[in-house]
Amino acid sequence: METLPVPRTSPVPFRRRLPTLLALLSLLAVALAGVLLAAPAGAAEIRGEENVVVAADEVVDDDLYVTGGDVVVDGTVRGDLLVAGGTVTVNGTVEGDLMAAAQTVVIEGTVGDDARVASQVLLLGEQARVADDLVTAGFSLETRPGAEIGGDVLLGAYQALLAGTVDGEVTAGAAALTLAGAIGEDVQADVGAADEAGAAWAPTTGVAVPRVDPGLTLTDAARLGGDLSYRSGTEAAIAPGAEIAGEVVYDPVVVEEEAVGPAGPLALLIDGLRLFVTLFLVGLLALWLMPRATTGAEGTLRARPWVSLGWGALAVVGTAVAVLAVLAVAVLLAIALGWLTLAGLAAAVVAAGVVLDLVLVLGLVLAVALLAPVVVAYTTGALLLRDRAPARFGKRVLALALGLLIYVLLRAVPFLGPVVALLVALFGVGALVVWAWDAARRGRARRSADRGRGHPGAPSGDPRYGGSWPAGSGPVGPGQAGSGPAGPGHGSPAGPPQMGPPPGQPIQRHAPRESPQGPGSSQGPRAQGSSPASPQGRPRPPWSGGDSGRELPPESPR
C-alpha cells in the first residue's frame, strides 16, 4: 500500500536557543558596564575597594564615588561624596552633599551642604556640623550635644534622640522620639504611644545605640523656638524644665477595637467555606471561558505529574529571578540614560520595568492562589469519579466541586495544610506551563505544515499548489498508456490531474464499471473510461467525461 508523506516539523528546542540568548545578555551587560564606567569618568573620581581611606592630608578636587566595606574620610572632598558600604565615617570635610547608604554612618566632621543618609544607625558626634538639611531613614538617629544642623531635619525611623542643635524645623515619624536639645523652629511629629512595647530587635553595629522610650519625650534640656504639634496615641511626657516658645497641639489617635470574630472550629469552618466558594467560582469561570486550557492542564497533570512538579518549581523560581533581573536592568538603564542627560527616557524605562514586574508578580500570584488549586482539584475529582475526561459540563462541575472539597479539608489540617498548599501550587502551575508549551509547539507545527503545502486548504501532492504527484497517479501524455478518461491503452489526450487521497490514506485502485446499457450501448466506451467517484464521495468535475457529452481540457497550473 502506498501512502502520501505527512509533513512534519522540528521546532528548535529552547536549550539550543539558550547560548544565543546568553550571548545577547552578555553583550548587553558589557555595553551597560561600559556606559556606567565611561560616562562619569570626566565628572567624578571613583574608588572601590574593601577598605577605602581618604587620608587627612589628601584633597579630592571633584566628586567622590566610593563603594567598600569600611570607608573613612579624614581628608577633604571638594565636591559631593556618594558612598555605599558597611561602615562610613566622616572625620574630615565634605564641601558638597553627603549621600550615603550603609549599615552604620558616623559623622564627626563637617558637611558643607545637605546630608542624605539611609542606614540602620546614624550618629552625629559632638563635633559634627551639617550646614544645611538632614534627611535620614533607618532604625536609629542620634545627635549628641554639640552637634549642629544648619537647616531642617526630616527623619523616618524607629527611634530618634535629638540632643544637638537644629536651626530649622523638625519633621519626624517614629515610634520613639526624644527631644533633648535646641530646635529653632516648629516641631511636627507622628509618634507611637507611650504604652507600646519597645523594639525586640536592635542591629549589631560598631557604635552604641541609645535606648529611647516609646512615644514623645521632652527632657529638661529641650528648647523649642516654635510650636509643638504631634499626633500620638498618648500625650507627650514633657519635663518641667523644657521650654516651648509656641503652642502645643496634641492630635490624639483613637484606636478602634476590631470586632472579634468566631474562634475555634466555627472559625475554621467559615474560612474553609470562603476558600471553597472562591475557588469554585474561579473554577466555573475557567471551565466556561477557557475549557481547553483547564482540561488540557488536567490531562497533562494526570499523564506527567512529576514533570509538572519540576516545571512548577522552575516557574516559581524563574519568575522571582525574572522580577529581580527586570528591576536591575531597568535601574542600570535609567542610570546610564541619566548620565547621558536623557532623563525623560530614563523615567520611561523605570516605569516600564515597574509595570512589567507588577504583571509578573500578579500573574504568579493568580496562578499559585487560584488557577493551580482549580487544576489539581479538577484532576482529583475526575479520577475519583472514574471519568478522566468528563464530556458533559455538569459532570465537570461535579468533579471540580469534589476535588475542591478534599482540598479545603486538607488545608484545614494543622501542619499538613501549608504542605498541601505548596504541593498543589507547584503541581498546578507546572501543569499549566507544560500544557501551554505543548500547545504552542502544536500551533507552530500546524502553521509550518500549512506553509509546506503552499495553501491552507490545498490537497497534498497537487502540483498547482506547489506539491508533486504521487507515484503512479501523474497525468498521461498523448500516446502513453495511462489511466485517463479513455481507459488503459488508449492514445487519447491526457485527462485532468487526478486528486490524490488525503495524507495518511493509501491510494486505492478502482476497476472501471460497466455501463447500465450493456456493452453495445453508445455510452459504453465513455462509461468504461470515466473516472470513478472519489472515496469521499465527492462529485466528479465536469471535464471528467460525465453527462456533458464532451471533455474539457484541464485547468492550467496557477
Features:
single chain; 558 residues; alpha/beta; 14-stranded parallel sheet; 24 strands; 22% strand
Number of continuous helical runs: 8
Mean pLDDT: 76
Structural class: alpha/beta
Distance between the first and last residues' Cα? 31 Å
Reported for the largest beta sheet, the result is: 14 strands, parallel
How many individual β-strands? 24
- Whole-angstrom Rg: 40 Å
Q: From the structure provided, what is the oligomeric state, counting identical versus distinct chains?
A: single chain
Percent in helix? 25-40%
Kindly describe this structure.
With 558 residues, the chain is of the alpha/beta class. Helix content is 36%, strand content 22%. It has 8 helices and 24 strands. It has helices at 14-38, 265-289, 291-303, 305-339, 343-384, 393-411, 416-453, 524-529; strands at residues 44-48, 51-54, 59-60, 63-73, 76-77, 81-90, 93-94, 98-107, 110-111, 115-124, 129-130, 134-143, 148-149, 153-162, 165-166, 170-179, 182-183, 187-191, 215-218, 223-224, 228-232, 237-238, 243-244, 248-252. Strands 1, 2, 4, 6, 8, 10, 12, 14, 16, 18, 19, 21, 22 and 24 form a 14-stranded parallel β-sheet that branches. It starts with 13 loop residues before the first helix and ends in a 29-residue tail after the last helix. The model is unreliable at 1-18, 20-42, 460-500, 502-539 and 541-552 (pLDDT under 50).
